[in-house]
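Following the same procedure, backbone shapes were mapped to integers, as reproduced here:
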Amino acid sequence: MKPAIIRAAKANLSKLIKMACAGETIVIARSSKPVARLVPIEAPKPRRCFGAMKGSAKLDGSFFDPLPPDELALWE
């Protein structure tokens, strides 16, 4: 799309916003010199929910067994 002059951008702002939301980049110009760009903002990231993975990890009894001596030596 060719640059929109400021006066035309004011008159058609709703239309330009719809076009930007559809993924198009709108350049706004003053006397045919680009001065601004109208682009859609990214949607906010969803908030993390505490406990969302509750119950998805399973531990068997061997998890609590002591480490073998050779592996334990690596931790010391």
Observations:
- The CA atoms of residues 38 and 50 lie 36 Å apart.
